[in-house]
Amino acid sequence: MSPSSLSVLADEQLALARATDSGRSARTVYGGPATALRQTLIALVAGRALQEHASPGEATLQVLRGRVRLVAQDESWPGAAGDLLVIPDARHALHADEDAVALLTVVRR
After folding, report:
1. What pTM does this model have?
2. SS (H, E, C) the chain
3. Residue 54 sits in a domain of what CATH number?
């Protein structure tokens, strides 16, 4: 197995997000149907969001670039490059306060 550069992949995903009307892009970097662990790079352009959705299972979000806000019910957690956010087991949304890339790690149920 060869290593992947998250910096290069983040640049690619952010460029794709900037080129789409939705202002977002995602790419699974590890995991598949037969694995319990999945890691996905998510890129969001400033002002865009992943609207509220159900929790995917036990999960974390490592912010690689920019600033985001994780929102669940009446709570909000800011994240900046280098921060690790634990995703609550509740419906939540992710907002980009500036162009951002994060690595979502999920242990599937």
Report:
1. 0.91
2. CCCCCHHHHHHHHHHHHHCCCCCEEEEEEECCCCCCEEEEEEEECCCCEEEEECCCCEEEEEEEECEEEEEECCEEEEEECCCEEEECCCCEEEEECCCEEEEEEEECC
3. 2.60.120.10
